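Worked example

This section walks through a single chain of length 147. The input is the sequence exactly as stored; nothing has been trimmed or padded.
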Amino acid sequence: MAQDTISHFSHPGHELVKRHHVGPSYFCDMCWEPLTGPGYGCVAGCDFAIHDSCAAHPQTLSSPELHAHELVLVQTHEELVCDVCVGRCAPGSFLYRCPPCGFDMHPSCARLPQAVRSTLHPGHDLTLVVADGRCAGMVLPLRVMQR
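Given that input, the structure is written out below as tokens.
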């Protein structure tokens, strides 16, 4: 297998080749966001393509800061809501799911920083807080926590 060709769990049975996608007509089959720039496409001629960064998402994720249980990256077949950003998860897109709890999270929300410093509130860090399955707080779902 060439270095620019990968096998990926999101598209079993077909290899994906590294491509540079141009134009707004392509959408990532993992996150359903516009696909422009580096990504991977199916070598078998399927219409399947994913961002370079989406190809790096692990199949399972443990993040005690966001959820107590291990999360599994699955493809949804119905429209769901991300329990972190409360954004739409389109049918066919991938999301991290906790099977016992039904907790759902966009893969991109898993990459949110746990703490940030804002120029609007420089005296304290803003800390990501997930409460009751939803992200609670202010400024990009962050709540001020004094340190």
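What to look for: Helices lie at 52-55.
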